[in-house]
Amino acid sequence: MSIILDFRLPEQILPIFGEGFCYQQIEGTLGVYYVDKSLQPAPSASQYLYRYIPQLFGLEAFPDAGDRGFNPQPLEASGILAQQRPPLSLTGRGVILAVIDTGIDYRERAFRYSDGSTRIRAIWDQTDQSGDPPEGFAYGTLYGREDIDRALNAEDPFEVVPQQDEIGHGTALASVAAGSSLDGGVTFTGAAPDVELVVVKLRQAKQYLRDYYIVREDVPAYSTDDMMFAVKFAETFAISFLQPVVILLGLGTPLGCHNGTSILSEYLQSVSQRLGRAVVVGGGNEGNSAGHFRAILTETMKQAEIRVGEGSKGFVAELWGMQPAEFRVSVRSPGGEMISEVDFRLGRSVDYTFVYERTRLQMDYVANERNTGDELVVMRFENPTPGIWSVMVRGVRTAPEAVFDLWLNARQFLSGEVYFLAPSPEVTLTMPSYEPDAVTVSTYNSANNSFYYNSGQGFSRTGRMIKPDLAAPGVSVSTVRGPYSGSAMAAALTAGAVAQLLQWAVVERKAPFVSGREIRTYLTRGAQEESGEDYPSRRWGYGRLDMRKTFDEIAGR
């Protein structure tokens, strides 16, 4: 099992793990300890500290059944096509785009130069242990440009480079952000068709983590540690003042602190502050999933009702109470069995098996969660009885603005229906959206300028961070795999727009000292506001992505 720590364990502690232990550094004191799971108990927020347990992330775009032909309208609506044309001619030339996802179909014409050679600088396949990993990394196989070109000229490309994108999600993202090809006489273009690509095919999360988060067996899920190593790998291609890197993340989770202080968010923040780097994150598709509940903490009990349908194998819920409030929790099953109000001072982890239900409930309490200083209860419902489950929360010490939030794990991870009867669509951006200097995008339909009903919404849990930064088209967006919809499409299109900006700023030496923070500011200043909407908006951020207006602002028009 893996534990992510931001400090090094003392040397005298390490021998207790014997040979069932290894360590891999990410950077500085940040690294991952791998321990034989037979030597350690199962993950527990109170046992290991919540901050250090890897989270699981799901895919954030899905195929549509619409027309498979190329539709340039989302690119046109964002002003991206206008900036590809003279006088600016911004196509991402000299910029590297890192796609951290399910891999890529490197055979596609969309990822080649006109002479047929690849535009992919490197592929790190974390799932393939047959070859050599990148230097400084302990697993996976690295395939360079020369390997990919040899594969493209081989009778069977997969004998040379066996990496494949079986799911198609990463290929779709890469084509929206960076594709360029002629296919059947119809021109296809992505937002930045001249970037070089660096691709990481993430490995699937280990089974013990899937069990801990109760993830459906047929759904892809990826863990924090593998994503952090992928970002580190992408970072190695950046050359300050010369070759900038855009890191595209089309994955997310609704669980977490929702305020930018997770260990992944802090690492992404450090990357975003470096010269010539930018991180683009999708805001997720949980806005309409009924997976979030919010109420004000008072001495009167507040009740969150969760509807559980037939066939549910279980789910995870996280309850966060805003400091300085203190709270007590009780649970009632559909059959009326009651877990009395828990006084967690008697123990930080409790385990219940109901007498008349087949359900097992684990409640793990953290009095002072390290990310935030807030109280946290992680609840795992295994084999929940169908019906209405009630979580009752009472404030012991309250404050005027003290609230509590409950989030369920991602809709796609759930088996059977699980949702709140009185949900809140706000604060439903998925993690790691709440990274201050990343470009975080919500999703809208550029065909009619309507907000996408599934899109996550802001702000942060405390209300102190304005996220999303802006909204981008993400509904029925053309890819080389047909149309896709979802947050990852909006992120991919925005990543291409960021590559345009970095070409202008760094490659063409107009603002060579730029970092992710400045890129985010350029885009938000140029965002197109909707009439009748208050800004910044929980849905739209500072407005719609508009590269025409962004460069007009830069030019002082």
Assign the structural class, choosing from mainly alpha, mainly beta, alpha/beta, alpha+beta, or little secondary structure.
alpha+beta
The number of helical elements comes to 12
CATH homologous superfamily descriptor of the largest domain: Peptidase S8/S53 domain
Q: What helical percentage do the residues reach?
A: 10-25%
Text of the CATH class of the largest domain: Alpha Beta
The number of E-state strands comes to 30
Question: What is the global morphology?
Answer: globular
Gyration radius over CA: 23 Å
Query: How is the biggest beta sheet arranged?
Result: 9 strands, mixed
Looking at the structure, the CATH topology of the largest domain is: Rossmann fold
Q: Explain this structure to me?
A:
By secondary structure, the chain is an alpha+beta fold. The chain folds into two domains: 62-203 and 231-287 and 430-555, Peptidase S8/S53 domain (Rossmann fold, 3-Layer(aba) Sandwich); 292-420, Jelly Rolls. The chain contains twelve helices and 30 strands. Strands 6, 7, 8, 11, 13, 15, 27, 28 and 29 form a nine-stranded mixed sheet that branches.
